[in-house]
Amino acid sequence: MGTFAGIFAGTFAGSQLKHSTIVDIAKKLKLSASTVSRALSNHPDIKKETKERVGKIARELNYTPNTIAQNLKRNRTTTIGVLVPEIKHDFFSSAISGIEEVAYQAGYTIIVCQSNESFEREVVNTNLLMHQRVAGVIVSISQSTKSGDHFQDVIKRRIPLVFFDRACSDVDASKVVIDDYKSSFSAVSYLIEKGYKKIAHFAGPKGLVICYNRWKGYVDALKKWKLPVLNEFVRYGGLHEQDGYTSMDVMIKEGKRPEAIFAVNDPVAIGAYQRIKEAKLKIPDDIAIMGFSNNKITSLVDPPMTTIDQPSSEMGRKAAEILIDLIEKRLSKPKSLVLRAELIVRGST
Amino acid sequence: MGTFAGIFAGTFAGSQLKHSTIVDIAKKLKLSASTVSRALSNHPDIKKETKERVGKIARELNYTPNTIAQNLKRNRTTTIGVLVPEIKHDFFSSAISGIEEVAYQAGYTIIVCQSNESFEREVVNTNLLMHQRVAGVIVSISQSTKSGDHFQDVIKRRIPLVFFDRACSDVDASKVVIDDYKSSFSAVSYLIEKGYKKIAHFAGPKGLVICYNRWKGYVDALKKWKLPVLNEFVRYGGLHEQDGYTSMDVMIKEGKRPEAIFAVNDPVAIGAYQRIKEAKLKIPDDIAIMGFSNNKITSLVDPPMTTIDQPSSEMGRKAAEILIDLIEKRLSKPKSLVLRAELIVRGST
DNA sequence: TCCCAACCTGCAAACGTTTGCAGGAACCAG
DNA sequence: CTGGTTCCTGCAAACGTTTGCAGGTTGGGA
Q1: Is residue B347 a part of any domain in this protein?
Q2: Structural domain for B278, as ranges
Q3: What is the distance in angstroms between the Cα of A117 and the nearest Cα belonging to chain B?
Q4: Cis link prior to B160 (omega < 30° from 0)?
Q5: Which of B68, B113, B132 is the closest to A133 by Cβ?
Q6: Same domain? A199 vs A294
Q7: Residue A345 included in any domain
Q8: Vertex A306, ends A234 and B268: CA angle to 5°?
Q9: With 60 as the cut, is the pLDDT of residue A1 above it?
Q10: Is the shortest CB-to-strand distance from A38 to strand C under 7 Å?
Q11: Dihedral in degrees, nearest 10, Cα atoms A99, A105, A106, A112
């Protein structure tokens, strides 16, 4: 006291107010730090009266435990890393929401990163999460991800890892996915049964497994019903609205009009919708269209769009549940879960 | 060596692989931890050859710096806490995306929490973020938030705080908002100039400042043009689709049909859209409708909806920029930013 | 009186870094 | 041989906790 430190205690310290610590409480009560620590964590060794005194001062000083120090000591964190291609996409934001929900209940917080569909950013972010010593990681990979080495690093360090929706095929980790092949196959079968014969597919990037599977389901369904698979009716592109718009544009300009379109996902289908409307064509009379994901928007366009329900929020919840299980039971055996994706028939087909 | 510890080193430790540390590297090279630390951070005191040797071993051992220990030592983190009502809502997920973008560039990671519009969860999450010693916090408050005490705690600790969109009126902190009153006033004025006289308003929860301001803008615009403000034409509700649907439902059942509706936000407007279509009424001929936010969906419904563009992603980016500025310059003076919200006229009015 | 629980509390080390300071080695000039 | 550089490295403390262990006090029974 009476020193400069004393004078300035409780005011600025480089313009930053010092958080109060266990030691501050201890000094004030002439106790040791260990006793205070035990008192705060309600340890049976500490008598009630002491606990009450400690609690009172803790409140007065606005004490909050320093999670960083706790984590360092315990050598673990209660933080889950979440890495997705783009946060703002309906599917991912719903999934994140589901993850947060489960994590919150279990006492975890989530760090969210996005790769923006860039492989490099995915690698950087993965490393960032490892630096941060997250307790586990939930990932949906980017379109451009070819190698899974950065995920192998995660596994090597025995940090639990769960993929959802877009998994990395050369990494042996837990997954929460839907059966893209089967969903696509039965969706296209439905179109065929409805009488459509000339069915086009707006496919996603060839490298992405889920896109490959959806494409394969489309092809196999056509084959099963002995319909020809025409190159001119399969267009590869990205996963955004713009891609659907462009694909449709090309088809219209080339004058090859299919009777129905099966799009790799909803945004692509929506993009096609717009171009179709601009061309003053009627959905589904002139051209039927079907998406994939059941994004919110599909039920609101006119006519409402037939699509496949990909339970985004449930996928997030399940991924989080599996991850937390892996973390807390210290299991290392990967666990896979395939969720049902149901066809939702609406007015566009 | 030769001890159990020696035998097991490099394998499991309670089924969890030990991360290698600076000390491990130091031992291997018969250097001290400090030298290794300096070598890794490219300190000029260390000669090149040593740096190279350290770098090599670091790579071999898969060394990654323990951010937790660094944070503890430096007494700060590079983590930003983000607290929003609901992650999956278009507006918020775009904003989060913008925040992540800026944070990533500046070397920060973000922890995302949602309050689910619950005051209690907002308080719990705010405390959680403080425990985690985040470097700063970006918040959009819940519908049910009445008191700002939990934010005062944040400020007391001199943790920089930035509100976006929904700010807490009794807390003196930085804000990134739009001028809800002015936007609403001019939007309703536009409706009036277009000739609509009987204009209804589907308002949000009275407690939320932004909703109050939008309501006030509506009322004042009517007054300015000497139109009556009718109770039967103002309906209070929540901010979701369901609320818009219900409000519209009531109006239709009561047989009071306005010529135009100004909704507090897009989801509410979309809900009304659905009910209007069910009633086989034509938009905008039978009833015009206008939303607020320029959610993606508004341009895709039929007819495309007139709305007010609330630049979600930019609001996120600006909030993050301001926050990082506050953190790095150690400023304590709040900074407010009002962004332009432009009326986007489409087919629904 | 002595002994032994029962009950509290404190000491000190540890978690993995960073960093001020001291100091050793090598070299050169005087 | 002395003294002074320059260059590199190590020691030890510190960040805020947690926790095994030791030790102190109190009170009761014999």
Answers
A1: no
A2: 180-309
A3: 13
A4: no
A5: B68
A6: yes
A7: no
A8: 125
A9: no
A10: yes
A11: 30
